[in-house]
Structures are given as structure tokens and as C-alpha cells.
Please model this.
Amino acid sequence: MAKPPSDDAKGPRFSRRSFLKTAGAGAAVSTLAGGVAESAPQILGPDAVPLTLKINGAAKTVTVEPRVTLLRALRNHLDLTGAKEVCDRGGCGACTVLLDGEPVCSCLMLAADAVGREITTVEGLGTPEKLSPVQAAFVECDGYQCGFCTPGFVVASTAFLNKSKKPDPSIDEIKAGLAGNLCRCGTYGRIFEAVQKAAKATAKPAPARRG
Ligand code: FES
Ligand code: FES
Model:
């Protein structure tokens, strides 16, 4: 049986560490060269460092090497496995989480860069007992087959609806809003139906006009 990917699975350890050290050192040099040497940038690593991340409203401390992505910190170190690792290069959206309310590919950012930001994973949107409106709509519309892409779609759909605030977004608007997410099972029709259903459930009615 294939072993799950570890933090060491992709690429040579040396190069990413070297990049971080070089980037940090370069920033320090340019800051000094510009005569603005108020405070030297912090250089992390190469060994593991403790990072405190705000995830689903709670502060969690994780000790990881600075080269570890947010996705791997969540999955391999914090037991939050909702976000999925599929392409590991920003091409499929399976790893989508919210960062300060904006959808991001957690495979494309370092955990260290998420310090101080509000991270919301699919686990933070609802619970099995109390599903979020988007989660409930996916269930009601049968918006999945294998389900592997579903957490990413649920998070991206939540971000889309939070921004759109429309009770009746068009299919084209939904397609554009979810353009970063791929479903290899091709369940798009039902996914879009679920988003339309959740839009009706979550959109706030416009305030009544006075006078
Ligand atoms: S796993 Fe991050 S975009 Fe595919
Ligand atoms: S339901 Fe299988 S990849 Fe989307």
C-alpha cells in the first residue's frame, strides 16, 4: 500500500531550505543596503520551529520546518484532513481553505506565512450534526461521486456565496466563482445545483425600502 505523503516526499530538502535562507538573507541585505535597517527580518529554520496558527477560531501551535506547506501542516500535523492533497501545485482546488475569508490553495503557501491570519477549513464550516447551508445543499443535491473534491468545492462555494450575496446566481457566475476547482468525476451539474440551492438558503433579503 502506498505510504501517505510526508513533508519530505516532494523535492530535495536542501533546495527549499536553501531558498528560504537565501530569500531571508537577501531581504536582510537589501534592507541594510537601503539604509532602513530598523529591524532585521526573522530567518526561520532550517530546523522545525513552533508556529501558532489561528484555525477555525482556535489558536493551534504546530512545530514544523519552515518549508512545510499550510496543507501539510493541517493534514500531517494537526489532524485536519478535510483539505485534500491532489495536484500539490495549485491546479485543482482540492486543498482550498479560507485565509481571512478568501479562498486559497493551501498547497501553495507555507504554514509560516499563515501566522497571524484567520484560517478556515471545511471542518470549521459546520459539523455532522449541524451542517453549514452549503454542506447541507451538497448532501441534498447529491453533489459528489467519490467525494474527494468535495471539501475544496464546499469551501470555494462558501467563499463565492459570501461574496456574491445573490439569492439566484447564474450558472455562469457559479462557474466563474468555482473556476479554480476541478471534479474528476464530472459532477459539475449537481455541484452547481447545490450552490444555487445554498444561495437561496443563505442570501439575506434586501432591506425593505421606507417612505
Ligand atoms: S492540491 Fe492544492 S490545488 Fe491541487
Ligand atoms: S466527486 Fe470525485 S472528484 Fe469530484
In short: The first strand starts at residue 49 and ends at 55. Confidence is low (pLDDT under 50) at residues 9-36. The beta strands are 49-55, 58-64, 96-99, 102-105, 118-120. The helical segments are 13-33, 70-77, 133-140, 150-164, 171-177, 188-202.
